[in-house]
Every structure is written in C-alpha cells, then in structure tokens.
Write a structure and sequence with these properties.
This protein is mainly α. The chain is built from four helices and no strands. It has one domain (6-83). It has helices at 6-9, 13-31, 40-62, 66-83. The model has no long low-confidence stretch (mean pLDDT 89).
Amino acid sequence: MVYDAWDHERHRLDLALRYNRKLWSVLLASVTSDQHPLPGEVRQNVANLGLFVINQTMTMLTTPKRENLHALININRELAAGLLGRA
C-alpha cells in the first residue's frame, strides 16, 4: 500500500488516486439519481461525503502529502465495511 511504503511506492499514488476518483464518481452518479432507493437525506449525506473525497483526491494529486491519505483510506474502508455489513 502506498501509505505504508510512501518513499518506495509513491509512483503508484497517481494510479490509486485516479482509480479512487473514478470509483467515487460512479457512486455519486448512482446515489444522486432520482431512481435511487435510499431516502433523500441519506443520499445527500453520501453525496456530500463523495464530494469531500473527490476534493481530497484532487488535492492529493496536486500536493501529495502522506498524512492527508489517512482520511481517504479511512473513508473507503468504512464504506466498504458498511457495504459488506461489517459496520
């Protein structure tokens, strides 16, 4: 993982960040659709979180700092855990 081996794996950072941005863009497109079954308030919260993630991802692409990755990693892990029913 890039975070754990920052000095040796930074060349993978752009790839990981671009993938993360694409993933969240798909999630945002889905959750903001009027056809999405989640309640509006939940959809809005997920959309707000998605916008935060995309903004943080863009910041990391332009100004990479190891300590700023932690928030993105935690959000992605928590979302994955929730989707898997482990939250």
